Amino acid sequence: MEKITVIGAGSWGTAISFVLAENGHDCLLWTRRDEQVVEINEKHTNNSYLPGIRLPENLKAVSDLKQAVDHAETIVIAIPTKAIRDICKAIGEIVNRKCLFVHVSKGIEPDSLKRISEVIEEEISPDKRQAVVALSGPSHAEEVVLRHPTTITAASNDQQAAECVQDLFSNNYFRVYTNSDLTGVEIGAALKNVIALAAGISDGIGYGDNAKAALITRGLAEISRLGVKMGANPLTFSGLTGLGDLIVTCTSLHSRNWKAGNLLGKGNSLEEVVSGMGMVIEGVRTTKAAHQLAKLHGVSMPLTEALYAVLFKDVPPKEAVDKLMNRTKKHEIEDFFLND
Ligand SMILES: NC(=O)C1=CN([C@@H]2O[C@H](COP(=O)(O)OP(=O)(O)OC[C@H]3O[C@@H](n4cnc5c(N)ncnc54)[C@H](O)[C@@H]3O)[C@@H](O)[C@H]2O)C=CC1
Ligand SMILES: O=C(CO)COP(=O)(O)O
């Protein structure tokens, strides 16, 4: 049994705490909301995020960050990308020993264009961190807490740390693989949300399965193109954290990114959609970051560019689709190693 702290009691933080507590670990869940602490500790539910689910009784919650950080030597960060730098800064000031940092978030910081592991490394000094591991893959919280079979990947530059995370989380409904390609895993995780927004828009407009399949496969092509330019292993993109997560996010009714896109495709404004969701839609900010990354690395990302125009330049979705379909004719398959 290990002592583990999870930072963030939204859908995913609660679901992974559920797995850790069921695995017999002494798991403490941190939330900034006192009323959530009371609900989790006394009623064993978190109904705003996972309605109707009974949480394990050995799972405890706190709202005191120092108490949470002091509890464990493994700290799992499970909050939206935009809040990660600030929370890591705060944790970095509290932590007084070397901890293993795991993150489960899926995004890229706009402007700095940092991956999440890079943000953690910037904010937590090397004397306070043993390693950073990203845990990522096709895994909707709503299905994990029903104990439906789920596969996921622990990625790190430190193989031993990845295997440690694999051991902590694995059980008979949550199967964890390892991967040493942290860049590929984090890029796939972040950018699948951009394509899922586009898939939701396509469905919202009323386009069919052909369009969805096109978005998934051509989306994967442009994610891989960028990832390889950033140093990722091309094979990572056909794995769980690439194609796997792209499929689940573009096709599942659980996906907040797909849902947001769907509402946009039906004519709602971005402001209406974001304020109505009540949960994070990572793909919106990541579209901005991906647009900046494509420019920086000189990589062609037509779907990302089309979504950027829809979200931030008021281009009507159908007009963006027309423009995509009428681009210069292309050869489908590219050679990542020759096309520099
Ligand atoms: N929901 C899911 O099934 C999955 C989500 N993820 C990723 O996990 C991350 C978190 O997502 P969810 O838990 O789904 O989001 P959520 O919207 O359900 O919950 C976010 C949680 O973070 C807290 N939070 C927000 N801003 C904060 C701040 N500044 N300081 C402290 N706490 C703050 C909120 O109070 C809430 O408890 C995202 O990057 C998402 O892409 C990854 C895999 C699955
Ligand atoms: O990453 C996820 C599933 O793997 C969750 O996706 P959404 O944030 O779109 O719900």
Q: How is this structure best described in words?
A:
With 340 residues, the protein is α/β, with parallel strands linked by helices. It is built from 15 helices and eight strands. The chain has helices spanning 11-22, 34-43, 65-71, 81-94, 116-123, 141-144, 159-169, 182-205, 209-229, 240-251, 256-265, 270-277, 282-297, 302-312, 317-325, and strands at 3-7, 26-30, 60-62, 74-77, 99-103, 129-136, 150-155, 174-179. An eight-stranded mixed beta sheet has the order 3-2-1-4-5-6-7-8, with helices on both faces. Helix 8 (182-205) runs antiparallel to helix 9 and helix 8 (182-205) crosses helix 13 (282-297). The radius of gyration is 20 Å and the shape is globular. The model has no long low-confidence stretch (mean pLDDT 96). Residues 8-13, 31-32, 49, 78-81, 83, 87, 104-107, 139-141, 279-280, 282 line the site of 1,4-dihydronicotinamide adenine dinucleotide. 1,4-dihydronicotinamide adenine dinucleotide (NAI) binds next to helix 1 and helix 4.
In short:
The protein has 340 residues and is of the alpha/beta class. It contains 15 helices and eight strands.
